[in-house]
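Deliverable D5.2: sample structural annotation.
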Amino acid sequence: MKTRSIAFCLGLTLQALGGCQSAYYAAWEKVGVEKREIMVDRVEDARESQEDAQEQFSSALEEFSALINFQGGELEDVYDRLSDEYEDSKAAADEVSNRINKVESVAEALFNEWEDELERYQNDNYRRSSAQQLRDTRRKYETMLSAMRKAEGTMAPVLRKLEDNVLFLKHNLNASAIGSLESELTVMQADIRILIRNMKSAIAESDAFIASMK
């Protein structure tokens, strides 16, 4: 069962802790949820946000393509739809960043705890085995995080272009304005293809990491 299924039960406790991360994780541990489980949950959440972002940016591209092929009707309605796609894309990008940051937070806590606990071993063979497992886990995590951050970084230029086009259309609600945006479509298509490719790579790395942690 995912940890968020009991999050409501801890709500008041965590509010009382004032957001301190060490106290936050300690509260979860008191109900039997270790940092390892929280990390897996957060990686799963980050993967889901990346999947959502893929779909949202694809939707924005479809709306932009429809704008370029505008054949008549209310231009203001077209602008409103594209503006909504931009806002939804920005929200999706923010959610991806937020979820990745949460993964980093729990990863740091987990690895620091693991390092400290190595010193508590009395059995040298156990210590060496655990230290090797830590190195392997950290390496897989860093590979995954790098893929996540790379995908995250490809969203910013697309958002900037979307915003520019939305603003230009807002200030020039006429058919000639749409014609001047046509050259942007090819660039947008290329950028979103790169974004989706990087998102898929990050999702694959997330799946591999989750599998290694279970």
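Annotation notes: The chain has one domain: 32-213. The radius of gyration is 22 Å.
The annotation will be released with the project's public dataset once the embargo ends.
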